[in-house]
UniProtKB/TrEMBL annotation:
GO cellular component: plasma membrane
Subcellular location as annotated: Cell inner membrane
Topology with respect to the bilayer: Single-pass membrane protein
SUPFAM superfamilies from the UniProt entry: Lipase chaperone-like
Main location (coarse class): membrane
Annotated keywords: Cell inner membrane, Cell membrane, Chaperone, Lipid degradation, Lipid metabolism, Membrane, Transmembrane, Transmembrane helix
Family per record: Belongs to the lipase chaperone family.
Record protein name field: Lipase chaperone
Entries under InterPro entries matching the protein: Lipase_chaperone
Pfam families membership: Lipase_chap (PF03280)
Coiled-coil zones: none
Length: 290
């Protein structure tokens, strides 16, 4: 039974890592800002196109490095804050001359990312990303800018193949996942191990005590989690008290008085926000009852 639980946590952790990756690649960060094909317009005045680019020093461009991508991302974030992303060609002159061509390719790469079919499976999506990188950048730029990202993709795909292989027994799948995770680069391994701890906390936190919380998450977090446990227990006790009192009202009070008494009961136990939560809980329970 313990082995089954560990397998569930391991697989859930791996899946959580996949979800974290997907979330990371689809949020509006500097790395994945959704773009439309821009409509280039000549600025009316020079003043309308002057935006601060970055507080970082202007990069030396003799060799492409990841810092150049960070510099372009700073520029792009500034445009986003000013609602000028679609007009980026009007502002590209603000970048160092040696970065303008790279920025041009980078922006068109981002446009192409938005056109990837969302229905692709993970293997197909990673292949599409690799193709787009080769279409828009030299191998030197790909190595400098996307090495870590592509490494994550390779390892994520390996876990996906293990998890989706129906010919493997549970024990074999767990062994392969454990072996794979143990050989990951340190940063990637820490992400997955953290996700596994999160899954364990999510599934078992109600039964854990302060010492278990402290050992896994530190003393300060343990105090907050114990306080949350107590608050959750009190909430459940109030719900249970409401249900019992509600049943008594329905069984004993005259029909014409029941609605008023139930309303009085609710407002005596819950504030306005809690009443909304209570209504959702009761509606869900009613929908699930036979």
């Amino acid at each position: 039974m313990k082995g089954k639980y560990l397998l569930t946590v391991t697989i859930a952790g791996a899946l959580c890592a996949l979800v974290l990756w997907y979330f990371d690649t689809n949020t509006q960060s500097a790395e994945q800002i959704a773009l439309q094909y821009p409509t280039v317009q000549k600025p009316k005045t020079r003043a309308t196109t002057e935006l601060p680019v970055s507080s970082n020093p202007i990069p030396i461009c003799s060799t492409v490095t990841k810092s150049h991508k960070a510099y372009i991302d700073d520029w792009l974030i500034t445009l986003q804050h000013k609602l000028q992303v679609e007009n980026w060609p009007q502002f590209i002159h603000q970048l160092p001359a040696c970065l303008q061509s790279l920025a041009h390719d980078y922006m068109h790469y981002k446009v192409a990312l938005t056109e990837i079919d969302p229905n692709l499976n993970m293997h197909e999506r990673f292949e599409a990303l690799a193709v787009l990188q080769k279409q828009h950048f030299s191998q030197q730029v790909i190595s400098a800018w996307f090495k870590d990202e592509n490494s994550w993709h390779v390892h994520t795909l390996a876990r996906w193949h293990i998890l989706s292989d129906q010919t493997l027994s549970d024990d074999m799948r767990k062994s392969l996942l454990d072996a794979h995770i143990s050989q990951l680069p340190n940063a990637q391994r820490q992400i997955i191990e953290s996700s596994q701890r999160f899954i364990e906390l999510k599934n078992n936190w109600h039964a854990m005590d302060y010492n278990q919380f402290s050992a896994n998450f530190g003393g300060e977090a343990a105090e907050r989690l114990v306080a949350l446990q107590s608050k959750q227990q009190q909430w459940q006790q109030r719900i249970q008290h409401y249900k019992q009192a509600h049943q008594a009202i329905v069984a004993q009070a005259p029909l014409e008085q029941q609605d008023e008494r139930v309303s009085t009961l609710k407002h005596s136990l819950f504030d306005s926000n809690e009443l909304k939560r209570l209504d959702v809980i009761l509606a869900r329970e009613q929908a699930q009852s036979p």
